[in-house]
Specification:
The protein is 27% helix and 19% strand. It is an alpha/beta fold. The protein has a domain of 250 residues: 3-Layer(aba) Sandwich (Rossmann fold), CATH 3.40.50.300. It starts with 5 loop residues before the first strand and ends in a 5-residue tail after the last helix. The structure holds adenosine-5'-diphosphate and magnesium ion. The site of magnesium ion has 2 residues, from helix 1.
Length: 375
């Protein structure tokens, strides 16, 4: 059996930014946003990049995608160097690697219709084929009705807008999807749906994923490998069960303990009878004496909910048959079986066997033809 190919390799990535001068004649200082970061993304892998705000995650992504120039270090995609430069010089790379940004409201042009937004990379990257058919195909793949192609971004909810952004990223049929905080700008209620969608798509289409998040719970849900960044420096990396199950660095331990929890939902007690006359105003709970505007609440007879009754905010563990919950789409419900399909051995060699492109992507004949690359 041949080892899966390394798709993206970064070595010694360093990026500094100039600080404002402290005095008129003094030298301008520099701040390290990223210092000596190495990473490898193997075909079929899902790599999570975690760290607090300002850790250098987005800087790393910009360098990986050739959107910014590193002070030191190199990025290679399939052994071909990715050098920032004119848009045309990176067309081959953009067809292979696409990004989903954090805020779909600002990443989608509000004056463009969904069809034009999703077809934009096809036109920019001069992908041949029937663009309208491809737009319909990817809209359906992300769970949107193709009829919505004539609508504008403001006519959608936040979760639906992020689906449009994912559809746009999928349009040129990439091999790697990079998602920079894809659910941070969304309501908690739709986060799990988008995460499930990403997991479903990467499995179904055989995509490799780089997922950036400050939330270890999100990374735990989707990624088989993880890289922890702090102040631009790599602290820990390796298979998720190893790094997150037995974190060596106090910083990783702190990130793990910061995964929020919510108390379980306890239903309101049913009113005893509806025929009982409403209580007079005088019988209603009075405002607390001396604290205008604050309604007194009856003292709770119960203490805080025991830990066992607390629901985790992070998505349910993969491979369980937990109820997807109301409002969750059937296709986004937790999938049976482990993720990733095969277990990684180490950070470098971790990978999953990629399904055959033709088998995994139900592309139309016209699209299959146009997906042939001129790399
Ligand atoms: P993250 O995405 O992890 O929140 P970033 O990569 O955006 O972090 O930023 C890392 C560090 O680099 C931060 O300290 C940030 O202030 C700094 N930084 C990022 N972009 C710039 C820039 N264009 N100019 C100056 N400093 C920057
Ligand atoms: Mg960021």
């Amino acid at each position: 059996m041949t080892a899966p190919a390394v798709l993206l390799r970064a070595e010694g990535l360093t990026r500094t930014y100039r600080l404002p001068r402290r005095s008129l004649w003094g030298p301008a200082g520099r701040r390290y946003a990223l210092r000596g970061v190495d990473l490898e993304l193997v075909e079929g892998d899902a790599l999570g990049v975690v760290g607090e705000s300002g850790a250098g995650k987005s800087t790393l992504i910009r360098l990986l995608l050739g959107l910014d120039r590193a002070d030191a270090g190199t990025v290679h995609y399939r052994d071909r160097e990715v050098r920032p430069g004119p848009a045309r010089s990176l067309t081959w790379f953009r067809r292979e690697v696409q990004i989903v940004l954090q805020d779909p409201m600002s990443s989608l042009d509000p004056r463009s219709r969904v069809r034009d937004i999703v077809a934009e990379p096809l036109e920019c990257l001069r992908v041949e084929g029937d663009h309208d058919a491809r737009v319909d195909e990817v809209l359906a793949a992300v769970g949107l009705d193709p009829q919505t192609r004539t609508r504008y971004p403001h006519e959608f909810s936040g979760g639906q807008r992020q689906r449009i952004a994912i559809a746009r990223a999928l349009a040129p049929d990439p091999r790697v999807l990079v998602a920079d905080e894809p659910v941070s700008a969304l309501d908690v209620s739709v986060r799990a749906q988008i995460l499930d969608l990403l997991r479903d798509l990467t499995t179904r289409l055989g995509l490799s994923l780089i997922l950036v998040s400050h939330d270890l719970g999100v990374v735990q849900h989707l990624c088989n490998n993880v890289l922890v960044l702090k102040s631009g420096e790599p602290l820990e990396s390796g298979p998720s069960p190893q790094v997150l199950g037995n974190p060596q660095h106090p910083y990783t331990q702190a990130l793990l303990s910061a995964i929020p929890t919510l108390p379980t939902h306890t239903p309101h007690p049913k009113p005893a009878t509806l025929t009982k006359p409403a209580a007079p105003d005088s019988a209603r709970p009075a405002f607390e004496a001396g604290k205008p505007g604050r309604r007194s609440t009856p003292p709770s007879t119960k203490g805080p909910a025991p830990p066992a009754q607390r629901a985790r905010l992070r998505p349910p563990p993969v491979g369980t048959s937990e109820d997807p919950g109301p409002g969750r789409r059937p296709e986004c419900a937790p999938r049976e079986g482990p993720w990733p399909p095969t277990k990684p051995k180490s950070f470098i060699s971790a990978s999953t066997a990629k399904p055959e492109r033709s088998a995994s992507t139900p592309a139309s004949p016209s699209w299959t033809r146009c997906a042939k690359r001129s790399a």
